[in-house]
Queue: 2 jobs
Job 1
Amino acid sequence: MLALPLLVLLATDAPAGPVAPRQVTPRQVTTAATGHVLANRDCWSADSRWLLYDLRTDETVFDGRRIERVEVDSGRVETLYEAPATAACGVPTGRGERVVFLRSPAEPTPDWAYAPWHRFGMTARRGERPTVLDARDLAPPLTPGALRGGTHLHTVSPDGRRVASTYEDHLLATGTGLPENRRVVAVTWPERRVAVSADHPRDQDGGFTVVATAVTDEPTPGSDEIARAYSDAWLPDSRRIAFFGEVRGAGGEAFSEVFVVDLPDEPTAAPGRPLEGTPTTRPNPPAGARQTRLTFIGAEPNPGVAASPRHWPVSSPAGEIAFLRRDADDRLRFCLVDRRGGPIRWLTNGRIEPTSAFTWSPDGARLAFVGDGSVCTVDVASGRVDRLTPPAEPGPTHHACVFSPDGTQIAYMQRVGAYDQLFVVDAATSGPEGEAR
């Protein structure tokens, strides 16, 4: 059994204009001699007072022992969760009164060490002890609502009812002669608990969890079939999730496009397609899940969405999805597409290329990102970029650039000595002649 402590929960480049600088003073929020890593979004408390983070030395190393939060104005730090001595935790996000984060297996063994198909989510509300987020069942008979592997990077839907994540499958990753293990998007109903028979030592009870996207080992060239689904982000209606799907071009080349999956209200199995799959087949999406391709960039000189920097197709409050792609001159630019599909709109001209993930302002008017060593925002109506912090070396990291829920601050990370520290900057921008607007 997991020993779970009580959680203290969170109560332009412009196509037609210049890059506008303004003099601001970024404020360092953390100072402890340890790593501090923000998730790419949903790391602020609802009242914009606190930041959630973990203590990994770097996002590529899963070695954090605690989930913490810091009060931005005072610098006061609270520990929300401490992992067992043989485990690690990280990537916390929150929505309302729910916090979710990632855990590695405790007491790892050679056949059950940290891996994408061995990690799992944890969740809690105010005053609760954290519980396992996603149920897991590894031995027949498999259990509907329990998957057979690991989840990662959990985000709560805007209405608080469901949690999205990526998923990889232990049975397929470690078996032979089976379909390939491929990353997909999963969805958990955390209040709908699933009890597992514990026929395997790594089985665990948890929330009702299903895969939401369909993949295939060999997508038909030129079709909408995908080999993997990744970088998921909720749409504002809490019924749909945007994600990147890896397709095959007419010549068999691999690249990714923007997709959306519509979710049913309740997860029930389609005839002949058990949610849990079988020991030799993948889990299946629930009946009513509908996967739709929004972009068709395969014929361009640089097909598909940009592979780097790592980013997510996040949506504005109005349902406009932002993503990055390279133009014919190989410049990295912001693009927008409606949640229902349609033409792609180029937003920036590529003079300042994004080097980080990005987030929307709560009013949907701007995107925050790191570019050219600065925290920047781009005005969605005009495409004008404002540089909020002066270029620095080392500058803000590529991990995160996150608007606060009240729209007044942007949080980011920057290396100070040997450690990544958390910073915030005023999100107000300057007008065409430099005056605040």
Job 2
Amino acid sequence: KSRQGALNQVDFVNFFNLLTHRKDLFGIMKTFIKNGSEKTMENISMNRNELYSFLEQAENENIKNIDNPTELQRLIDTYELNNEFREKGLLSLDGFRNMLLSRSFDIIESVYSRQVYQDMTRPLCDYYISTSHNTYLFYSQVSGNSDPEAYNHVLLMGCRAVEFDCYDGDDGKPIVKHAFTLVKSCSFESIIRCIEPNLFKVSP
């Protein structure tokens, strides 16, 4: 706001909040709260009962025992940074985001995500993984089409890491394309549906 080419503390916090506001999580919250369609990203909040309804469907082993008001409030106290919301037993959109990004909600089992569980003493070449760059391209890097079949081709060759360059399509759905080139895009959905039968045929 000062137009001095730098952010002060308040500007930085506002900028950070702008970058980290999650529209996808906003949509999820609206489905679990009363009168959700009337809320905005700034004033939406979830009470303990609504939070419990969400947790019932989360099916996460780490939080399966959170089923009483005390435990629910503990979650809110832990992840809600707004004092006013926290004292009222409410979880804001930012608090909801903080909760879902926490270790308790990690989709990877904690035994694998919090410690080294594999042998890391071998030479680097022993950990080689076949990877693919611009997987959606069969031929030219600057023209032609993005092709879902290109993914099947590399997967059946044993590739374990593929690349998606995703952008918003005109209809709001994700597309895959090589940006700033003449390569034509294809839908992200078409790729996922195409490769599903071959994902683990060669590489488990």
